[in-house]
Amino acid sequence: MYRVLDCITVDHDPYLVVLAAIICAFGAAASSLVATRIASSGRAGAWIALLAINAGSTVWATHFLAMLAFRTTLPMSYDPGLTLLSYLIGVFIIGFSVRVAHGGQRRARGAIAGGVLLGSGVAALHYAGMAALRFPGHLSYDVDLVIISVLLSIALGISSMWVGRRLADAHARTLAAALFVAMTVTLHFTGMGAVRLELSPLAADAAGMSRSALAIAVTVAALVVLLIGITAAIVDQRIASRLASEAERFRTLADGALEGLLVHRDGLIVDANAAARAMFGLNGPVAAATRLDTLLDAAGIARMKEPIDDERAFELSLLNAQGAYFPAEVSRRHIKLADGLQGELLAIRDLTTRKKSEARIAHLALHDPLTDLPNRRLFLELANKAMGHAQRTNERFGILAIDLDGFKTVNDMHGHAAGDELLRTVARRIQSELRDADVVARFGGDEFAILQSFTTQPRQAMALAERLLETLQTPIRLADAEVAISASIGVALYPDDGATTEDLLRNADTAMYRAKADGKATCRFFEAQMDAALESRRRLEFRLRHAITSETLEIAFQPLVGSRDGHPVAFEALVRWNDAELGYISPADFIPVAEETGLILPIGEFVLRRACMEAASWSQPLSVAVNLSAVQFRRRGLVDMVQRALTESGLPGERLELEVTESLLIDNRDEVLRTLTALKEMGIRIAMDDFGTGYSSLSYLQSFPFDKIKIDRSFVTDLEADSQNASIVRAVASMGRSLQMQVVAEGVETRSQAALLKDLDCDELQGYLIARPMPAAEIEAFLQEHPARVSPADAAPAEAAA
Q1: Within a domain: residue 584?
Q2: What per-residue confidence (pLDDT) applies to 799?
Q3: Confidence of residue 204 (pLDDT cuts 50, 70, 90)
Q4: Same domain, 15 and 55
């Protein structure tokens, strides 16, 4: 040790020693800058070569500048060949050591091997340079210091390479450069301390490089180091600036991504974009702050230990910033980090919104959007499960089919919004009467179904039906009105009434239709004979639809005559149906079906249009009477439909009579009055049909603009035998005269009835006595035999006078 210290302090010029150290430090710093480009550049070979030249020149210049600082009075020169060889040894071995250190996947083992080569190369450069020394004598070495110098060089070389693995870390680069300087300086002065100069008078002077020539060579080497250092610094600054700009751009892109991007190494999060930081509450710098395991549940931790599959994303539950787990789709990729080590990139997509949307879609697929009740599909699934359970346990369950009575009236008169509110209210009322195990579903329109599971049947089904009938009859308050409805309920029980869910539903529907046929607002249990009746009704409805579309319905006309002179005054248009398969169907059978199914609307329009066309073609200007259903009044557009029929046929409004029943007047009086008034303004006459059979009220005659009152045939049939009927007819006729309304008696079949009705002051008669309903083609012949009361030229004045 003392020999080394003496070598530094006594045998060397301190100024030149300091200069050598400065050159060595500067070269080491330049080498570290060049080294950073090896990993980040695509041209690693070129940068390794430049690093080898810079580091070799640094060590060589340091060594020979220190040799120039060596104090001696002996004449010294340097062998050019060995001097150049020492330089080449340093460049090539240092370059090879860097290649070994950075060329493999195992960075730790490569750093050690590269460090051994680096230390050995610097030692070889030093002792090759010492061998180039020429003076009168020869060199000898203390073996112990030589060994120590080589070992120190290798140890410091390994340390420099080991620390230098983290090229992206500025502190690591600085420490690696310092270790490189220490290696170079330690080797030189330890090696110089081992030198023994032995003079020999017999030694011949060998020609070589003089100290001045060496100084020039050292100066050139130092300039090379300086040039490389400056160039490396400039390149490093520019590259660093560009990398910073690119890093900022990529950071902006990463932070702009909707997915969370998270980078971890060995389970420790080292970086995250804005979406991930917000997702997990990772505020501030992420490095060495959070472990990935803290964001995962047990299943997620196990999943993250599996090998990475770059082609497949998977779902995990992750812990968000609020401390709640949320579903996420995760993709994994290997990634090389800035320090050259391998990490893992996680792309995380929050599936919370998508899962909610999927759940909502699934809910909508199985539930009615208006009432949020199960729909038919879900009901069938639950009913099938109930049936499977019942088959295993020998239990019974019931299905109740519910159809609202009067819903179409509410929907037509108050609008669809009111109808929707009514359905929601009905749904709530039905649910309030059910047990938790029961299920109610809406099948569409005003149809509901109930699955009553595993109860004492049929007693429990009847008890539930009675509760439902009572609660649904309670008036419902809508936005602008209070309405009253009822329900018809049909019940089918398993296993008595069906072996499949479809059979049970069909039979419950059959029982429900029987309840409607029996007067509505009631409940019926399925019976086998109901099925035949329902099938007959369905067949009737199917054929009626076919008759409407194929226009095979027919119109018959029955005359009305004056009671005193017997002259025709009008014809009533009556729809008739003679089906190719079912034969003749009475209006009493198909009209109720048409009104219940809504088919009365196209039928009514067909009758009105055809009646107006036929009446316009008659040779005598008689009126034509057409019946209007209450269903037609509930649909908007009735006035427009009548106007179109008159316009298309050319029939004056004064020759059209529209007959309505008393039931029409019960609901929504104001709307009906507005419609009738609009029709009256078109010149159309209005007649009240079947007077006395319904809720007859004198207020109707006073409030509504009727022109005629038609006494129902039930009063005429027993007119001769029942004096009370005669009194009623006389009272109605008297009331009609007082209100300036004509009175018509229907169902006149005998001459005695006609004579009596004439005495009771009825104005017009209609019935089989006068004529049966006839096809349009027979009207002209009838008018030839029974001319009208007035001629065509006098029709208008006569009607006005009447």
Answers
A1: no
A2: 39
A3: very low
A4: yes
Cβ-Cβ contacts under 8 Å for 509 (sequence gap 6 or more): 401, 490, 534
Q: Tell which of 237, 272, 289 closes a domain.
A: 237
Question: To the nearest 5 percent, what fractions of the chain are helix, strand and coil?
Answer: 55, 20, 25
Same domain? 64 vs 147: yes
For the segment 588-628, what is each residue's pLDDT rounded down to a tens digit? 889 988 988 889 999 999 999 999 999 999 999 999 999 99
Give 99-154 pLDDT, tens digit per residue.
777 665 456 677 788 778 878 877 887 777 777 777 676 777 778 888 888 888 88
Query: How many residues appear in the chain?
Result: 802
- Do the domain assignments include residue 593? no
Whether residue 746 lies in the annotated active site: yes
What is the pTM assigned to this prediction?
0.47
Same domain, 632 and 727: yes
Do 346 and 273 lie in one domain? The reply is yes
Return the minimum-mean-pLDDT range out of 62-66, 160-164, 592-596.
62-66
70-109 residue pLDDT tens: 656 566 677 777 777 877 887 788 777 777 776 654 566 7
Q: Identify whether residues 632 and 779 lie together within a single domain.
A: yes
Rounded Cα gap, residues 403 and 367, in angstroms? 19
Number of domains in the chain: 4
Residues linked to residue 494 through DSSP beta bridges, in sequence order: 397
Question: What are the φ and ψ backbone dihedral angles of 146, each rounded to 5 degrees?
Answer: -60, -45
Of 731 and 663, the structure prediction assigns the larger pLDDT to 731
Count of Cβ atoms closer than 10 Å to residue 105 Cβ: 7
How many helices (H) and strands (E) the chain has is answered by 28, 26
Q: What's the CA gap between 136 and 74, in Å, rounded?
A: 7
Domain range for residue 675? 561-575+601-784
How many C-beta atoms surround the C-beta of residue 360 within 10 A? 10
Question: In terms of domains, do 156 and 198 share one?
Answer: yes
Q: What residues are paired with 197 via a beta bridge?
A: 139
| Backbone phi and psi for residue 246, each to the nearest 5 degrees, phi listed first | -65, -40
Specify the pLDDT at position 682.
93
Q: Return d(Cα 168, Cα 308) in angstroms, integer.
A: 26
Using CA atoms in the order 329, 335, 337, 341, what is the torsion angle rounded to 10 degrees? 120
Distance CA 372, CA 313 (A): 35
454-458, 606-610, 612-616, 712-716: least confident range: 454-458
Does residue 404 lie in a domain region?
yes
Are the C-beta atoms of residues 119 and 156 closer than 8 Å to each other? yes
Query: In CATH, what number is assigned to the domain containing residue 430?
Result: 3.30.70.270
Structure tokens at 455: 């109860």
CA separation for the pair 58, 74 (Å, rounded): 27
Claim to verify: residue 198 and residue 269 sit in the same structural domain:
no
Q: What's the first-to-final CA gap in the chain, in angstroms? A: 149
Q: Could you tell me if 208 and 292 lie in one domain?
A: no
The per-residue pLDDT for range 358-372, each reduced to its tens digit, is: 888 888 889 999 999
Task: Report d(CA 768, CA 764) in Å as an integer.
Answer: 14
pLDDT at site 618: 94
The answer to the question of residue 180 being in a domain is yes
411 membership: H or E segment, kind and range: helix 407-414
- CA 254 to chain CA centroid, Å, is 26
- For residue 558, is it left (φ>0), alpha (ψ between -120 and 50) or beta? beta
Q: Indicate which CATH number applies to the domain containing 333.
A: 3.30.450.20
Tell me, what amino acid is at 143?
V
CATH number at residue 713: 3.20.20.450
Say if CB 498 and CB 533 are below 8 A apart. Answer: no
The helix/strand/coil state of 623 is strand
Measured between alpha carbons, how far is 94 from 54 in angstroms, rounded to an integer?
Answer: 10
Write down the catalytic residue from 746, 749, 778, 780. Answer: 746
Report angle CA 163, 164, 166 to the nearest 5 degrees.
90
